[in-house]
Amino acid sequence: MEVVIVPDAAAGGELIAEAMAALLRRKPDALLGVATGSTPVPIYEALAAKVASGAVDASRARVCQLDEYVGLPSGHPESYRSVVLRQVVEPLGLSTGSFMGPDGTADDLLAACEAYDRSLAEAGGVDIQLLGIGTDGHIGFNEPCSSLASRTRIKTLTEQTRVDNARFFDGDIEQVPHHVITQGIGTILEARHLVLLATGEGKAEAVAQTVEGPVAAVVPASALQLHRHATVVVDEAAASKLKLAPYFRATYAAKPAWQGL
């Protein structure tokens, strides 16, 4: 996979936002797969700034979610639908009709998972899927030992993930749902371009295992090694345990500017 080491989170956000802008210039109705959490915020801010300045037209873009909590009403401020509307759809000036996501409040959650997988395929597939990574190597909510062929499904969150996400619920872990709907690893791998952003020393071990370790279900993000077009963007802290960091720096420095991510 392609590994790009950037100085900081802002630089990573700008780099990925430009890749998304370039995609929209080529394909104005591209389907953008978005992730939640604090890590991708610099991407969305940089892309919104490009739209506001007229550097790119996102009016025909479509957006789809990576995952959703089970049981939170769609209007809850920390439902991922609300977060994506607030951080992506509204700043880019998109309509809610351009937005796709799994229904975490459905009476039949299994049917809702299958329906979401189907809807992604019927939409022509995801053009670029943004990903974060957990300290344990999870992507989406595919926790360690998730099947590498898994489809959109219901998952039970580990205690560590609930602890990590409690900061979005006023620090109260009791408010964090126990279950989520998440795109499976097999579903994620169907996107045309996967872009993972990781920042901070706390992600360094997971990044090293993802990029340089074996493909293994215990590190779900390592499945990106199987993808034909996967890009990992990391800041210096998150790259600190990469043995091949000098090689990655030299390779990206020599890459022709027109090639992009």
From TrEMBL:
Keywords: Allosteric enzyme, Carbohydrate metabolism, Hydrolase
Record-annotated active site: D67, D136, H138, E143
Coiled-coil intervals, chain numbering: none
Stored InterPro entries: Glc/Gal-6P_isomerase, Glucosamine6P_isomerase, Glucosamine6P_isomerase_CS, NagB/RpiA_transferase-like
Hydrolase in keyword set: yes
Broad class of enzyme this protein falls into: hydrolase
GO biological process: carbohydrate metabolic process; glucosamine catabolic process; N-acetylglucosamine catabolic process; N-acetylneuraminate catabolic process
Pfam families, per database record: Glucosamine_iso
Molecular functions per Gene Ontology: glucosamine-6-phosphate deaminase activity; identical protein binding
Record function comment: Catalyzes the reversible isomerization-deamination of glucosamine 6-phosphate (GlcN6P) to form fructose 6-phosphate (Fru6P) and ammonium ion.
Protein name per UniProt: Glucosamine-6-phosphate deaminase
Organism of this sequence: Actinacidiphila rubida
Lineage: Bacteria, Bacillati, Actinomycetota, Actinomycetes, Kitasatosporales
